[in-house]
Amino acid sequence: GAVVSQHPSRVICKSGTSVKIECRSLDFQATTMFWYRQFPKQSLMLMATSNEGSKATYEQGVEKDKFLINHASLTLSTLTVTSAHPEDSSFYICSASEEGGGAFFGQGTRLTVV
Amino acid sequence: AQKITQTQPGMFVQEKEAVTLDCTYDTSDQSYGLFWYKQPSSGEMIFLIYQGSYDEQNATEGRYSLNFQKARKSANLVISASQLGDSAMYFCAMREGWGGSNYKLTFGKGTLLTVNP
Predict the structure, then answer these.
(1) What is the pLDDT of residues A77-104, one digit of tens each?
(2) Using one digit for the tens of pLDDT, what is the confidence trace for A46-78?
(3) Yes or no, beta carbons of B43 and A49 under 8 Å apart
(4) Of B4, B32, B101, which to mutate for an interface test with A (greatest number of A Cβ within 10 Å)?
């Protein structure tokens, strides 16, 4: 299958700071990328859909000003958690899809806000 | 109403035996796709198997097979000859609609599989 790379895999940051997570499709062009959040022992919940060259579509209840998404190229989408607080600590994982292809996931990022 | 239901929070199986993980779904779309992913403790989501709504044959990938019963809206995962490395969380997911690159998935709550030696 296609390869999606997510970076960093783990990050610890201080409360009030911002953290950027990158999601790259390494061997295909991803017209659409998705960002999910997963709390411990729970399922993946879709946060937003990122389309190259246009604004992201956020799911109900997700603060767009807190979770900034940028999809500036066909191979890169970024999620920035702004003014992070301990309740933002979670596992964030992206997936990327290509035209006619499947959905491929990155390795995930474990964010801890202290 | 939940779109993907996995009724087994946890399952245990002896090594080398087969195990079935249940998944039922709810959709009014005629075109949809069903996925199974494995998530080990490291967190990565490993794609296992896919079944399209129009596929007449049950999907198989090595030791994984998908028991697709469309009328019952079920898509159970069967793992044959379980191995210790199969111990992980397993998620069933659905994509509604068809075409394009919109692989927005809805996930079930998952089943934690433990393989005993």
Answers:
(1) 999 999 999 999 999 999 987 766 678 8
(2) 999 988 888 899 999 999 999 999 988 889 999
(3) no
(4) B101
